[in-house]
Amino acid sequence: MSLPSLKLLVQHLLTPQVYLTNPHKLIFEDDEWETWLASESAVYTNWRFKKQSPEPKGEGKRKYEWKRIYECDHAGSPRDRRDENLSPSKRRKTKESIKVGCKAKIEVYKLFGSDVVNIDHYWEHTGHDPSTLRSMKESRNPDAVRHWLDCRVNDGFDSKAIKAMLRMTSEELAEITDEINALPCSIKISAQDIYNTVRRKNVATTYLSDNPVESIRLWITKLTEKGWSAAYKKTPGEETRNGFTIMLCSPWQRKLIAEYRDTVCLDSTHNTCKGPAREKMFLSTILARDRVTGKGVPLAWMITNLESHHPLVQFLLWLSSNCAFHPHTILIDCSGTEALAINLAFPNSAISILYCYWHLWEAWDANIKSKIVTKKNRCPEDRTEILQDVRRDVGKLLRASVLAEFEKQWEYIQEEWADQKAWVKYMSKEYIPTKERWCQAWCQAQEIEPDYMRAHVRIGVGFNSRHLCKAEQEAKKHAQALTPADAESRVRVVSDKLVMIDSFTKEEISYEVTLDDGGIIACSCPAFSKSGLGCKYMFLSQCITMFNILSEKSIL
C-alpha cells in the first residue's frame, strides 16, 4: 500500500471565468454548496465570509431561512493598522494593500419551504483580474493552501522539510510557459508564508484565553498542576505603575538549584516581548554552569513589565522560600539595579557579587572612547595609540592578583593619565568603589551561556562530550601536545584515589590529581587551585587513565 503524497496539488486557473448573466445563478443540495465554494476559492478567487443576514425586525414574513454573503478578498478600501504613536522607523513595514474596492461577491441563501440552496454568483471583478499572474501574486493564499500548510506544521515538519515538499521537479518547471492555463500554487508560497503558519500555530497553542491576563493565570494553574513552582503576582513597591511579576521554576530546575545554587549568574534581557497592555517586558534568568555538560543551564525565570529593583527583589525572595535558593556568589552584568536587588533580598548573607567581564569591557571601552581627550592637532593614529595604552593599563588593573598590585596600578593610572580628568573621575566614582566585583584579586569568573535539559541528559549518559571553556581548551591542547612516551613517563597511578603527575616545566615538582568514583575531581596545581577549572594535568591524567573529569564545585 503506497503512502499518500504530501505535496501541494492546488493550482490557480489563469483563464477568465465568464458567464452569460451577472449574477450567475446556481442551485445545490444542502451538502454540496460548500464543496463548490471551497473549489472556487482554491482555484480562482479567494472568497471571504462577510456576514450572515440578521433576523428581520417586526412581525413581517421572512423570505430566507438563512443567507450568507461572501466577498472577494480585494473588496473594501485600504486601511493602515500600524500604531500611529510609533516613529516611522519603528513601524512595521507592510506591502501595498490588495484592497481595490472589488464588487464581486457570492450570495448563498435558502428560501423558506425550499429543499435546495440557491447561489447568486456576482462574478465580474472590478479593479483587478483574477486570471492574471499579477492578481495571483498580490492575492492572499487560498484557504486550501493555508489548510495544507497548517497540516504540515501540525504534523511536525519544519521549514526545510516543507520547502522540500513544495519544490518542483525540472520537468514540472519546464511545463510552466506563457500559454499555460493553470499555475501550481506551490510556486507562490514563500518562507514568510511558512513562518506565518508556524506563528499561527504557536499563538493558538500559547494563548489559553483571549484575555492576556486570564491566559497568564491559566498557564500558572496548568504549570502548578504539573509540579512547577510558578507564580503571577503584583510587584510590591510598584502598585502605582501596575507592576506585575511572573516567576517560573520547573521540577528539574529545582533539583539543579539544590546542586548549583552556591554560584550562579543573573542575566537580564530587555524588551523581550509585549505585555497585556502592549508594554515592554523584561526577562531575568538565573543560570549556572552545568557540571555534566560544562555549559550554562537556566535554573529559573522571571518576567516583569517594569525595569526596577522591586521585581528582582520579589523574584529572589520567592526563589529563596519556594526553591531553597541560597547563593554564595552571583555574576551580574555591571548593573547597579541588580546589585541593589541582591543586597535587599539577602541582607543577612555575605553574597559575593561579580561583574561579567564582557559587559565590563563594553562599558569601559565606550567611556574610554568618549572621555579620553587628545589635542586637536594630533593625527588619528596618535589617538588610536593613546586609547590602546589606556586599555592596556586598565587591563593590568583588572588582572591584579593581590591588593597591593591593584593599589600600585591604580596609583600609576592616576599619575599617568592625570590630564584625563573626566575619565579618571568616572573610574573613581563608578568602578574603584566596587573593585571587589571585578578585580581578579577578589574574584574568578568564566563564561556562562544558556543550554537545556536535553544536553544535560545526553552528556550524562555519554552521547556527547562535556563543553570546555576557553581556558580548559588551552589546557587540553597542552596535555595533548606531549608525545605518548613523554605523557606516560610523567603519570604515576598511586591508587584508585590518587594519580601523581610531574610538572611540565619544573622537573623536581609533582602534582596530585585526586580521583573519586572513577572520575578526576581535583588537582594540586596552582591553576586548578585558583580557578577550579580543568587543568592540563587533569586532561593528561584523563588521556592516560581514561577517567572522566568531574566538577566538584560550581564555576562561572
TrEMBL record:
Lineage: Eukaryota, Fungi, Dikarya, Basidiomycota, Agaricomycotina
GO BP annotations listed: regulation of DNA-templated transcription
Entries under InterPro entries matching the protein: FHY3/FAR1
Organism from which the protein derives: Sphaerobolus stellatus (strain SS14)
Name of the molecule in the record: SWIM-type domain-containing protein
